[in-house]
Write a structure and sequence with these properties.
By secondary structure, this protein is mostly helical. The chain is built from ten helices and three strands; from the N terminus they run βαααααααββααα. α6 runs antiparallel to α9 and α8 crosses α9.
């Protein structure tokens, strides 16, 4: 299912959500230009990504890495491995992030987003502590936004495309159904991938989502969770 937009209005411009999208796009452009500067994508991912092996063993796999080891936990959130990785992450961030930001407020939302990203990385490291595959992407932090959204807007609906081979119906889906299916798929895929080398950090998604569900109670007031405007369609 590919979400297009939801039916929950916002009260003010989502500056932080837009800012995060802009930063991710600019970093992606930097990734595309890096080879021209003599920096390979692989080296960039090891230097600015979060590598579980480096974190658990306190070593640097890349000689003369310019960033301190802990910095990769944050810089990894802005790197992406391809166009589809970037596009889908930014789509989900825009659709669900603007409403969560609207409820929390800009400063709290930024802290919440980064904290969910840290929790996502921690979950991936805990499951695969000796993995040398760099964890990159905004997916873990965005998963936290999805977790917050399902708590804040249980009655929302999302207009979504359902890819069915040659047919692509567009239907309204309750947000909680869409997000539970998304989470269930991450959980099943993560369990199936245990012990295997995979490029998708499923447990970062799982950890980020769970963190979002829990942290939303800290970053929003009871009035904020219950006093939202009703859906518009």
């Amino acid at each position: 299912m590919i979400p297009l937009y939801d039916n929950v209005p916002t009260r003010r411009f989502p500056a932080v959500t837009v800012g995060l999208i802009v930063v991710c796009v600019l970093v992606w452009i930097g990734e595309l230009l890096a080879p021209a500067l003599g920096i390979s994508q692989g080296r960039l991912f090891f230097e600015a990504g979060a590598v579980p092996y480096e974190i658990t063993n306190r070593v640097d796999l890349v000689r003369d890495d310019p960033l301190p080891r802990w910095a990769g936990i944050f810089t990894s959130m802005f790197l992406h491995g391809g166009w589809l990785h970037l596009i889908f992450n930014m789509l989900f961030l825009w659709i669900f992030g603007n409403n969560v930001e609207d409820t929390m407020g800009r400063v709290k939302f930024l802290i919440f987003y980064l904290l969910c990203g840290v929790c996502a990385t921690a979950a991936q490291v805990a499951i695969e502590p000796q993995s040398m595959v760099p964890t990159i992407g905004a997916s873990g932090a965005i998963a936290g936004v999805l977790g917050a959204y399902i708590v804040l807007f249980p009655r929302a609906k999302v207009l979504s495309v359902i890819p069915l081979l040659v047919f692509f119906p567009v239907i309204l889906i309750p947000a909680w159904v869409l997000l539970i299916i998304w989470f269930g798929w991450q959980l099943l895929s993560g369990v199936a991938a245990l012990g295997a080398q995979t490029e998708v950090a499923f447990f970062a998604h799982i950890g980020g989502f769970v963190a979002g569900v829990l942290l939303v109670w800290v970053f929003t007031t009871r009035r904020g969770r219950c006093g939202r405007a009703d859906p518009q369609f």
